[in-house]
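Aggregate trends can hide what the representation actually does to any particular protein. The sequence in question and its structure tokens are set out directly beneath this paragraph.
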Amino acid sequence: MTKAINVAMLGYGFMGKAHSNAYAKLAHFFPELEHRPKLKVLCGRNEVKARAFAETWGYESVETDWRKVIERDDVDLIDIGTPNNTHAEIAIAAAKAGKWVACEKPLAMNSAEAKAMTQAIQEAGVPNLVWYNYRSVPAIALAHQVVQEKRIGRAFHYRATYLQDWTISEEVPQGGATLWRLDQDTAGSGVTGDLLAHSIDTAMWLNGAITDVVACTETFVKERMHQETGQVQPVLIDDACMFLARFSNGSMGTFESTRYARGRKNFNTFELNGADGSLSFNLEDPQYLSFYEHTRQDTQSKVEDHLTGWRKIHVTNFEHPYMDHWWVPGCTIGYEHTFVNTLADFFEAVENGKRPRPDFEDAWQTQKVCDAVLLSAKEQRWVETGVDA
């Protein structure tokens, strides 16, 4: 027996589209799930744009005030796809109203907000999700499986990069509906919260808690015109960030992110090196996971010298994570499908009485690392993250 769950989508931007697509496709590819999302209401500040978005995606109604959405009895799930500075107030109100809550990343402007949001969610006891969708890339999920199978052995090094190039021009403005990610008052931080939050979440999912960091940040273009005021104002977010990290398992980490890497569009990579093997992944070639095997798990013996080398695994077989729900082996899936996979994991966990992951608690831990990174860069010293090991 299936049951409808009425979804309210807050926001009609990039993430509003990605999330709406996931709700629309979920039942087609994960028909075993009990819940069936129903696109009930689209909420956005610009009514004309909201109505156009709602018509395109098939939402039944439109609101311009998120508070009215939360008050509605015919809404079960609030999906927060709005700018970062609105997340906390909306999520806390939704939780108190007994709604399920899904929220875009980063969870909050800082860890204090994230803590308050997490506590409100836990007190209400409502199902919750944070859209760290890269966990649901099949190749990254396979990497997690390989680590859980102890094929890497003792971890020594984790290195991650997340590079883009879309803000290099000094003519790019800041703020407003389209470029709020460059406005500190709206975004909270720059690449640290926008890009490195993904890298940090993935790293801690694969390799455990990050306990200490030392960082440096840079803002290359110091002033930009603000779209809303028309005035040239200081740019206060970080354009680039690099940090070193220590993990609770004793391994070392390096992280780098920038929006000034000419030619890099969404270059999100990681490599994990251990005593028994290594893993490597690049989001711009997402159907592959590279694996170096030094010790065979079946015999715990060293791999024959003449066969050692990196193995490039095409993650499209039915035995690979999620792929039995999609196409035949050899046919790849892409960015949009990671949101469908994330949503499927969420509903499956709820239906089986398990903790959905990643949730607000996970995202709060990531927020702690982001805060520690920014504090370290400001004070030029090692900072403890306070992440729960």
Q: What stands out?
A: The longest strand covers residues 35-43.
